Amino acid sequence: MTQDFVTCKECGKATPNTTYCIFCGASIQKAREAAAPTYQPRPQYTPPAEVSTPDFEVDGLLRQEGGYDRFVLAQTREPYSDSELTQRLDELRRYWVMQIKLCELLVRGDVTGRVFTKVYDEYGVEIERIGKDAGRRIGEIRKRHEERTQEMNHLKDEYEELRVRVAVGERSEKELLTRSPGLLERINALTDESTRLGRRLAELDEAQGGMNPDEVADVGRKIKHCLRSVDGLVEEGRISERRAATLRSDLRNALTFFGVDVESQRKEQEALMEELEALEVRFKVGEFSLAEYEGLKREINEKRGNL
């Protein structure tokens, strides 16, 4: 049996844990009290005082601080919320639609040139103001998306590199097990944020807002009708060439804003023109009668007018 020893408080020697020191005869009670651990009551837990949090969005951006062993969630204050941005885009769409309707009134002769110019320019000022505001906000979202995607890819490369170095024996399995949870947590957070921002940008690229495809197609037809009518307005002396240049530029911008596929429609127009030329050749060689030729020609021109 192993005997316990204590240090005598009088002579300082190690003595068996009995009643008296075997060297100097002093009482061992004081030595026992000194050797026994002192009980310290656990301090009572006091919850921290509640602190009001400023109105900001925790955007999930994980930044390195002193290397990748420490990281923090970056907190970015939004200039305004997504609902405000959506409201601005709705306002922008409304002004575009009103400007297009105003052009239709001009084409039909239902408004004088002076009144048209006054109202048209007022709408143009609002379109430019709201467009710049919304464009700046969309640019911020695009920048944040690029930053998160870049950092996410950097961390993925770092994680892959660590696994490779472990696989070839340069680094230990212990290091991989230690660092993997933190790296994967940051990668997942950045992936979620990048995906959310990417979806939002895709929604914003469809700037027609709540308009369905039929409504967008209808607006596109109206814009193109106004575009085709600009030269005639100049010839009639109802607008100046300078105003005509402004109208052409604005109407083309409207096509872009509403997401009308101008390139696809241009190709369809070219295909219909080729079909019309081929029809004329076939008529000249006697494949069709005049009545058949006129009927087919009319169908093709109707298709061109609907584009």
Question: Secondary-structure blueprint of this entry?
Answer:
Layout: E1 5-7, E2 14-16, H1 29-35, E3 57-64, E4 71-76, H2 82-108, H3 113-167, H4 173-205, H5 213-235, H6 241-257, H7 262-284, H8 290-306
Antiparallel strand pairs: 1-2, 3-4
Describe this structure in words.
The chain is mostly helical. It has helices spanning 29-35, 82-108, 113-167, 173-205, 213-235, 241-257, 262-284, 290-306; strands at 5-7, 14-16, 57-64, 71-76. It folds into three domains: 5-35, no CATH class; 57-260, no CATH class; 265-307. The chain is built from eight helices and four strands, in the order ββαββααααααα. α2 runs antiparallel to α3. It is elongated.
Derived from helix and strand composition plus strand pairing, the structural class reads: mainly alpha
Give the overall average pLDDT: 78
Uncertain runs are 47-80
- Radius of gyration of CA atoms, rounded to a whole number: 40 Å
Keywords for this entry:
307 residues; mainly alpha; 3 domains; two-stranded antiparallel ribbon; two-stranded antiparallel sheet; 4 strands
Give the gist of this structure:
This protein has 307 residues and is mainly α.
